[in-house]
Q: What sequence folds into this?
């Protein structure tokens, strides 16, 4: 568990960390590059090449098409500094490496064209890789990059008294996956769910509640308070629009800027809230409690947990100190209406407003307070904000303002992990317009459809209860993979058929490959065929070699995904694992193979594949049922 380290930052007092901090999940065994054959090989080659050339950034890559080799290294970037032609460099490197440290693993080294091409000896290489997967199991792929540095992940962060939107679903899923990837790479992770529970919106809600709460049955009898609150929310926005329209018609000027009475009353209520008005606070606390019950249902479906769940409201008591600090530093200036702003012209950004002219706070003010508090509590190396791309400029402003606040001081790195919009076939979702498909409906629809599908494809005899459980894993997995599998920044159009397909780039396809592997292992047990991990493997067919080489690259894939904050890299890799396993499954028979050694190799390969698929899916928060 991370302990509160300071109760101040930049000299700004920070309230103590509330007890709500949860212990972090049990940690994976953290391995290092030295523990993996592939990474060790890569490092050895890298070393030998850089010894020779003092060239820092050696990149080993896939050989070009048509070259029979496993790794390649382009020598032309070295030509200039070495004053030699690329082919000569490749040839002399080849000679060097042939005398190198692992001749047992590298069979052919050749310098063709401007490339150094290396082939590995598949049997000893595969033996090492299988052993690693069998030894490290669920930790296979993990490695120590972070050295225990703390990463705070601001994610999910839905708004109280509203339904969680599909955008929040993306933030929840991407945030959780990045949390797991960071944990697997030796970081201390704090998932911080920054609930939206403050702001003018809540003033509006309080006013709506005061006016109309009696009209809604869900609120009167308490049967569905969040739905009731949501109706109030939609209603007050509609009424505001009506008021404005009426005013425009009355004045005869469609462009006139009108303020509606309701908006003004909402703002008054918000001022009362900021002043600590008890009635307003009670309503908000009640609404928060109700909303958390709703959110929790989604978190349970997805299997996400938070080390922290502090709403914006928690940071409100810090605001006077934050503003005073900024004033003392001379980084806020009143504008002509009396609002306080931070000038960001030097950073070529619009000014950031931190206090409204009526003295109330904004999203941005509470953001800066949160940033100060997190810096004090956790001393994090990085804070990742998993928030939609529509807040890109806002985060640039916030980070720039924080730069001005921290000048010269040690500060955490801050990064906006932005993502594109997701739209459902029904059209873009907007809770304000009331045209909305609730998130839970999306997940339950996925589960229902998955249930029908499993009925179609399932070959195992399963009880109803098992089928329901599997449908849940497939349905939720399908939605999650559809999201994580694509580049984060892209706008995506949700497609039921693609998401739930058992054939294409989808979770069910991968889960199915995994279940097949597990079924095969079960059959082996039934037939009393024991797997012997001590007999040296024999990789007999190209599809076997291709699969084990691919499995050996999982640790490297995890590194890349962690460094680039890209779960889609894991998704691609895991999908390819499934396709390579399917190739093998089509090419060779396992249980009927007469040669003991070859059969044993195939069984171990099957077991290792199932393990790697599970590890990949786990980093994507997708479950892998053993039967389908
Ligand atoms: N509640 C906000 C929204 O729904 C997202 C908050 C994201 N996190 C943050 N630190 N601003 O738009």
A:
């Amino acid at each position: 568990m991370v302990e509160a380290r300071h109760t101040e930052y930049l000299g700004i007092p920070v309230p103590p960390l509330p007890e709500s901090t949860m212990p972090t999940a049990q940690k994976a065994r953290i391995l290092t590059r030295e523990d993996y054959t592939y990474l060790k090989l890569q490092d050895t080659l890298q070393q030998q090449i850089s010894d020779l050339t003092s060239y820092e950034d050696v990149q080993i890559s896939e050989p070009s098409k048509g070259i029979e080799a496993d790794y390649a290294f382009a020598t032309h970037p070295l030509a200039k500094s070495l004053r030699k032609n690329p082919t000569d460099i490749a040839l002399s490197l080849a000679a060097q490496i042939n005398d190198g440290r692992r001749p047992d693993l590298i069979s052919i080294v050749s310098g063709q064209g401007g490339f150094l091409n290396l082939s590995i000896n598949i049997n000893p290489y595969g033996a090492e890789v299988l052993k690693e997967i069998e030894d490290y199991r669920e930790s296979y792929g993990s490695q120590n990059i972070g050295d225990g540095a703390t990463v705070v992940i601001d994610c999910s962060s839905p708004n109280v008294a509203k339904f969680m939107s599909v955008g929040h679903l993306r933030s929840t899923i991407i945030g959780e996956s990045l949390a797991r990837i960071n944990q697997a790479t030796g970081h201390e992770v704090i998932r911080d769910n920054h609930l939206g529970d403050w702001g003018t919106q809540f003033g509006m809600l309080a006013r709506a509640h005061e006016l109309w709460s009696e009209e809604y049955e869900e609120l009167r009898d308490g049967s569905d308070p969040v739905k009731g609150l949501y109706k109030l929310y939609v209603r007050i926005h509609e009424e505001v629009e009506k008021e404005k329209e009426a005013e425009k018609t009355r004045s005869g000027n469609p462009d006139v800027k009108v303020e509606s009475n309701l908006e003004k009353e909402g703002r008054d209520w918000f001022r009362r809230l900021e002043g600590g008005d008890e009635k307003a606070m009670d309503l908000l606390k009640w609404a928060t409690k109700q909303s958390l019950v709703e959110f929790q249902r989604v978190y349970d479906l997805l299997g996400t947990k938070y080390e922290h769940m502090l709403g914006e409201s928690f940071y409100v008591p810090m605001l006077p100190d934050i503003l005073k600090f900024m004033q003392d530093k001379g980084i806020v200036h009143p504008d002509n209406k009396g609002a306080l702003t931070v000038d960001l012209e030097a950073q070529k950004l619009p000014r950031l407003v931190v206090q409204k002219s009526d003295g109330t706070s904004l999203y941005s003010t509470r953001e800066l307070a949160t940033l100060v508090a997190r810096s004090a509590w956790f001393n994090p190396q990085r804070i990742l904000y998993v928030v939609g791309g529509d807040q890109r400029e806002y985060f640039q402003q916030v980070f720039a303002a924080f730069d001005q606040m921290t000048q010269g001081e040690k500060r955490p790195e801050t990064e906006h992990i932005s993502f594109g919009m997701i739209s459902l076939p029904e059209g873009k979702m907007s809770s304000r317009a009331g045209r909305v498909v609730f998130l839970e409906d999306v997940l339950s629809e996925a589960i229902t459809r998955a249930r029908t599908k499993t009925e179609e494809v399932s070959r195992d005899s399963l009880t109803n209860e098992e089928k329901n459980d599997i449908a849940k894993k497939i349905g939720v997995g399908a939605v999650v993979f559809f999201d994580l599998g694509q580049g984060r920044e892209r706008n995506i159009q949700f497609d039921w058929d693609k998401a739930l397909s058992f054939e294409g780039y989808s979770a069910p396809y991968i889960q199915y490959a995994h279940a097949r592997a597990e079924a095969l292992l079960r059959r082996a047990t039934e037939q009393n065929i024991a797997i012997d991990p001590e007999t040296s493997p024999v990789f007999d067919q190209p599809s076997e070699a291709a699969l084990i080489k691919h499995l050996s690259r999982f640790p490297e894939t995890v590194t890349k995904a962690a460094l680039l904050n890209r779960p889609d890299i894991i998704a691609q890799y895991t999908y390819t694992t499934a396709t390579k396993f399917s190739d093998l499954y089509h090419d060779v028979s396992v249980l009927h193979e007469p040669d003991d050694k070859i059969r044993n190799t195939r069984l171990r390969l099957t077991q290792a594949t199932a393990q790697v698929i599970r590890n990949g899916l786990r980093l994507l928060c997708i479950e892998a049922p053993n039967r389908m």
In short: The pocket of arginine is lined by residues 154, 157, 159, 194, 196, 367, 385, 387 (CB under 6 Å). The first helix runs from residue 37 to 53. The longest strand covers residues 106-112. DSSP finds 21 helices and 15 strands in the chain.
